[in-house]
Write a structure and sequence with these properties.
Elements: H1 8-29, H2 35-57, H3 65-89, H4 95-102, H5 105-116, H6 124-141, H7 152-176, H8 183-199, H9 202-205, H10 213-241, H11 243-246, H12 249-265, H13 272-287, H14 293-297
């Protein structure tokens, strides 16, 4: 998908749709596949899609061992671990709720950046954002509801996934931020390493039976779009609109995820879930200085990458 064929607003919309719908595709695939099988399949399809893009754009694969070692760490933190956690969590949670938790990724990134990067101080805006976001997470979990213990481990798994995303983004910035490597190349290596790691567990995953058409289409969409092309669209939007405006996709994906869960799977939505999500989004805005007068006059550059489950 080139810039000439797709305008930036269209790519932004496709990105929000692909990442928001990923949680629906996972839920559908879980009817016939295990969480590990889903992760293995989406990474293989994502690597295949990105490999085709590498060939089409004639990108060379770097041979530096240190680069591959760093990207192997990123692959575990950015692909394998969070994908497994989200897929397992959706065996007990609705796809819409999982998509809401995914919106906490920028907050996790802000917290790790403040702790590990000297250039990312914990300012008043960021501290306010983290406190608002933490409050929002508590509201989403709903400790005041009658039935909490049944899905608490799954909700903690979602938070573990977004924590892993946050640590991965900071690791990327610290160790690979100055590398002159095309984004598609880095994505291809990350996803391919993740696929290889999952293939090592193939003897323990079991063999899937005959997949129904909905599950097959969900896996193709999850791998090719949610794990492959979405990365290219995200790179194009950041390039054309800047990182701050591109980060707005974080606000749209949970809306897409919840709507698809309700419309396609008839999933229920408890009142405290969208309320908590609103607090999380307010926290993200606060962390970026959007709620202060200073932030309104001149919003600071966004260093928080976005990512889907």
């Amino acid at each position: 998908m080139t810039r000439a064929r797709l305008g930036t607003p269209v790519q932004f919309g496709l990105l929000a749709l692909a990442w928001g719908a990923s949680f629906l595709f996972i839920k559908v695939a879980l009817t016939e596949l295990s969480p590990a099988q889903i992760v293995c399949g989406r990474l293989l399809l994502g690597a295949l899609t990105l490999g085709v893009l590498m060939l089409a754009t004639r990108q060379a694969i770097p041979r530096e061992l240190r680069l591959w070692a760093h990207l192997a760490v990123v692959s575990v933190l950015l692909c394998v671990l969070p994908f497994l956690l989200f897929a397992w969590a959706e065996t007990r949670l609705s796809s819409g709720l999982a998509s809401i938790y995914n919106a906490t990724t920028p907050l996790a990134t802000t917290a790790f950046a403040a702790a590990l990067l000297r250039t990312e101080r914990l300012t008043r805006d960021r501290l306010t954002g983290l406190l608002l976001g933490f409050t929002g997470v508590l509201v989403i979990i709903g400790p005041f509801t009658a039935d909490l213990t049944g899905d608490l481990p799954a909700q903690l798994a979602c938070l573990g996934a977004t924590t892993s995303y946050g640590l991965a983004f900071v690791y990327l910035r610290r160790f690979l931020g100055d590398r002159d490597v095309p984004a598609v190349t880095m994505a291809f290596i990350q996803v391919t390493i993740g696929a290889a790691l999952m293939l090592l567990t193939t003897p323990f995953l079991g063999t899937p039976g005959n997949l129904s058409l909905p599950v097959l289409l969900s896996m193709i969409a999850l791998g090719a779009f949610g794990t492959g092309l979405a990365y290219v669209w995200n790179t194009a939007v950041v390039r054309d609109w800047g990182a701050t405006n591109a980060a707005a996709v974080t606000y749209v994906t949970p809306v897409v995820g919840v709507l698809l869960g309700v419309l396609v799977l008839a999933e229920p939505v408890a009142w405290h879930q969208p309320v908590g999500a609103a607090l999380v989004l307010l926290g993200i805005l606060a962390a970026h200085g959007r709620l202060s007068r200073r932030g309104v006059r001149a919003s600071p550059p966004n260093t928080t990458p976005t990512r889907s489950g």
